[in-house]
Write the structure tokens for this entry.
Amino acid sequence: MPVLIRSEAGDALPVSLESLERTGARLLGQYGLDNAELSILLTGDKHMAELNRAYRRKSGATNVLSFPMSAGEEPGGAGMLGDIVISVDTARREAGLKKITCHRRIERLLIHGFVHLLGYDHERSPEEAEIMLAEENKIIDNLKRQERRNAMVNLAINVDHVATLREARGINEPDPVTAANICELAGAGGIVVHLREDRRHIQDRDVRLMRELVKTKLNLEMGASDEIIAIALDLKPDMITLVPEKREELTTEGGLDVAGQLTRLKEVVDRMKEAAIPVSMFIDPEWKQIEASKKAGATFVEIHTGRYSDAASEAEADHEFDLIVTAAEEAYESGLRVNAGHGLNYLNTPRVAALETIEELSIGHAVMARAIFVGLDQAVREMLDLIRLERANRKTGPATAAFPAP
Ligand code: PXP
């Protein structure tokens, strides 16, 4: 039992011991200390003040104390890493001041105590304090990434095609804004629109209304032109996805060449960061583009699944799929959040949805095509069912590649 957790802080604990135990195990795992033992005690201010006096000659309670077990040895070398004692009373007060939940605060204190057990000490010097804080932030990032890896994949629906139909008649129906609402009611976790420079489908009015009405997440797909950048900065979507844009193309054709225009794109990312808008780069599944996206400061990459979707043979699809798997893993491991999309349909989506490094799928055409026959609500629900089934199956067996054709 690597994590031994115990509470003497009363019955009404503002934290789940199971959850803290899991966090403790993940902390040990991050440092390859899976076999080491970590003991966690939740207590109150009274006991904490006694410990503080006895071991540090300080008066009053403190939030967390660490007692390394193997003084002079490698942390965890002797099997027992040490004890962490947390005062729930102090954590509760600090959580109130920081306006976070007490659970979050206790988790944060656990991480702080753990880093002390590893030998870091912020009290030694300001430089060490910085190093220790960086180590804590690294752990928090890793924990968040682990949580995402285990989470359900999100489905974002691209409603451009509804606007294409509207523009074909030059009237005001069908309305992509209504479509966005229906998609959300059916369970979509995000709405994507591409505001093209030529305004061939989505119009400025659409994105303005969606900014107000979309309740999940509005992802504005866009080329990196000055005009559209200004609109995005004003609109403040929940995120933007930078795509290459050519006037003569029917749809986005290839991934963005981030490596080839790194300086310019980094500038765009910096401007978006100032406005707190996360940026995703729509890229082909290539390491060069992942690396460049990271250098540009992107938060996400969206891996272009077009070549996989358009593959003419099973062998070609397998080859393209392998590229997606590798790229998603590489991007994830380099700290990027990973989305995927383009050309995904009811047959080829499950395989991609099963990849645990992928956080979100962006799907448009297939859902709208099916919606013509079964209705938009049902088309979205069917895609969601497929994705959920695949994620649920992930633990029990290999990904299926097919879905009964309509
Ligand atoms: N992701 C990006 C970046 C796109 O440009 C598009 C097409 O607009 C999609 C996803 C959705 O592709 P599809 O309509 O083929 O599902």
